[in-house]
C-alpha cells in the first residue's frame, strides 16, 4: 500500500518512544516554566529558564506529531495486512 511509509514494527516502536519522549519533555517544560529550584538555581542552570521551558514544550509538541504519524502508520499497516489476507483467501 502506498500510504505505508514505515514497517509496522518500526511504527509501533516509534510510537512507544515518542510517548515517553513527549511525557519527559512535557514534565521538564512545565518544571522549567514553573521555576523549580533544583533546575533553575544551580551553578549549571540556564540563564533564561523560561525559554528552556518553552523549547521543551515545543519539542514535546513535535513528539505528539510523531505519535500521530506513527499511530496512523500502524493503522495503515494493519489494514494492508487484512487486505492481503482477504485477497489471499479468496
Automatic annotation (TrEMBL):
Highest taxon of the lineage: Eukaryota
Transmembrane stretches, start-end: 12-32, 52-76
Alphabetized GO MF terms: RNA endonuclease activity
Keyword hit for Transmembrane: yes
Pfam family, one: V-ATPase_su_f
Membrane disposition: Multi-pass membrane protein
Keywords carried by this UniProt record: Membrane, Transmembrane, Transmembrane helix
Principal location class: membrane
Entry's Gene Ontology cellular component terms: membrane
Subcellular location: Membrane
Protein transport recorded as keyword: no
InterPro entries in UniProt: Ribonucl_Kappa, RNase_K
PANTHER family, sorted: RIBONUCLEASE KAPPA (PTHR31733)
Identification of the protein by name: Uncharacterized protein
Lineage of the species this protein comes from: Eukaryota, Fungi, Fungi incertae sedis, Chytridiomycota, Chytridiomycota incertae sedis
Amino acid at each position: 500500500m502506498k500510504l505505508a511509509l514505515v514497517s509496522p514494527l518500526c511504527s509501533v516502536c516509534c510510537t512507544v518512544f515518542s510517548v515517553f519522549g513527549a511525557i519527559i519533555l512535557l514534565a521538564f517544560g512545565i518544571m522549567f516554566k514553573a521555576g523549580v529550584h533544583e533546575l533553575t538555581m544551580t551553578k549549571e542552570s540556564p540563564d533564561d529558564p523560561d525559554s528552556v521551558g518553552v523549547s521543551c514544550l515545543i519539542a514535546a509538541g513535535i513528539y505528539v506529531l510523531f505519535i500521530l504519524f506513527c499511530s496512523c502508520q500502524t493503522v495503515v499497516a494493519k489494514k494492508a495486512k487484512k487486505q492481503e489476507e482477504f485477497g489471499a483467501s479468496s
